[in-house]
Write a structure and sequence with these properties.
Order of helices and strands: HEEEEHEEH
Shape: globular
Helix content: 10-25%
Number of helices: 3
Largest sheet: 6 strands, antiparallel
Distance between the termini: 41 Å
């Protein structure tokens, strides 16, 4: 591997490869938008990234848990919803599911807001098998083409 000469006249090459400048255009950390399940029937197919605990919010005094996902497909109020990286503040119903499922990073799952009992949101959940995840991604690729 060739080493850069700090006294070289080719400073543009140095700047492009220098560790001191490499991350200058890196986007803000933890600046992901939030996805909210508002209506029964709202649903996502998503890839699990992780969970963040003790996240302070403006709305509640107590810290919350944030579910980090890459939404592959979503439906909100019967319409196509967003896709991409999102954070989902966990309701107690989502937390119960995530605690019991112990997902690994990269696992693909389906999550649907099913119903509201008094003030408790009930969710339907399914972890997809590898075969189902491949089938989903193929179908989404076909839709986008």
């Amino acid at each position: 591997m060739a080493k850069l000469n700090p006294f070289s006249a080719d400073k543009k090459t140095q700047q492009q490869t220098s560790i001191l400048n490499r991350f200058d255009n890196l986007p803000p950390t933890n600046n992901t938008p939030t996805f909210k399940f508002e209506n029964p029937g709202d649903r996502i197919y998503a890839r699990f990234i992780g969970r963040r605990f003790n996240v302070q919010t403006k709305k509640t005094a107590e810290p919350s848990t944030l579910l980090d996902v890459e939404i592959l497909n979503s439906v909100i109020d019967g319409e196509d919803g967003p896709s991409g990286k999102f954070g989902i503040f966990e309701s107690s119903g989502i937390s119960q599911i995530m605690d019991s499922e112990a997902l690994n990073q990269g696992d693909v799952f389906y999550l649907r807001f099913d119903s509201l009992d008094k003030r408790f949101k009930r969710f339907a959940f399914k972890k997809l098998s590898e075969q189902e995840a491949v089938e989903l991604e193929k179908e989404l690729d076909d839709i986008l083409m």
